[in-house]
Write a structure and sequence with these properties.
Chain lengths: 173, 80
């Protein structure tokens, strides 16, 4: 038997593969009663991502967390406020496999959105938001258009664009 | 809450979603990765086979002598 230090890469690889396989079991269920998050792990690892369940009667407010980067859809966080707790969901990390189209799949994997109009369109066609609109619980989409701390439309300005390209050029060499 | 009861919606992680792939593409990928795995095995065997009788003796002797030495050390109570 080899020492543990030599087996570490193998163990890490096994753990990573296991995590990837477990991730397929993760579910976020929206129904008429409420929201139910089912974590991928079994009981021992529930501390990492605990299971939670919210009823619509408990929910006081759903709103978008003030955006920091408007161009990164993955960074958008939806906050579900009850009296005592706040549950956070990243809508663009989730996908509806029953109504999945190529367009939706692509939008869920988008890392970069050029303008706010495109982001708004993605937001409106997202199944989660459409579901919330059906039950009159959708958050105010105006929050998407509020000014952000970092506006990442850097490629608009020629001077900034040149600076960024030079930066990456030098640090790649 | 509105009185209309929408259908239950089950969301999954987008990273765990298997993108539908065409059959020929799937088979082509399978063959590609099978080759990547099998080629080093096949050519490794082809490389080792003619000389295995020359290197097997020293390798096995070295291994067993080392394990014997280690066992001997353990039995003497030396630090392992």
């Amino acid at each position: 038997m080899e020492p543990l230090s030599e087996m570490m890469p193998l163990l890490l690889a096994i753990a990573a593969i296991g995590m990837i396989r477990l991730r397929k079991k993760e579910r976020l269920v929206f129904n008429a009663e409420g929201i139910h998050y089912q974590p991928p792990f079994f009981r021992l690892f529930r501390l990492i991502s605990p299971e939670w369940r919210v009823l619509w009667t408990e929910v006081k407010e759903i709103r978008i967390k003030p955006l920091r980067y408007r161009n990164l859809p993955d960074s958008i966080v939806l906050e579900i406020h009850t009296g005592s707790q706040c549950y956070r969901i990243r809508p663009f990390h989730w996908l509806d496999p029953d109504h999945s189209s190529a367009e939706q799949y692509r939008s869920s994997r988008l890392m970069w959105v050029r303008n706010t109009e495109r982001l708004h369109a993605l937001w409106l066609e997202h199944p989660l938001i459409r579901f919330l609109e059906q039950i009159d619980r959708a958050p105010k989409t105006n929050d998407l258009f509020l000014p952000t701390l970092f506006d990442f439309d850097l490629m608009k300005n020629a001077h900034t664009r040149t600076t960024i390209l030079l930066f990456f050029l030098f640090f790649s060499m | 809450m509105n009185q209309t009861d929408p259908k239950e919606m089950i969301l999954i992680r987008s990273s765990s979603y298997d993108k539908p792939m065409s059959r020929p593409k799937k088979y082509a990928l399978f063959v590609f990765f099978a080759f990547i795995i099998l080629l080093p095995i096949v050519y490794g065997i082809r490389l080792i086979r003619p000389v295995w009788h020359q290197i097997s003796g020293p390798i096995l002797t070295d291994f067993f002598s080392k394990t014997a030495a280690r066992n001997h050390e353990k039995s003497n109570g030396t630090v392992v």
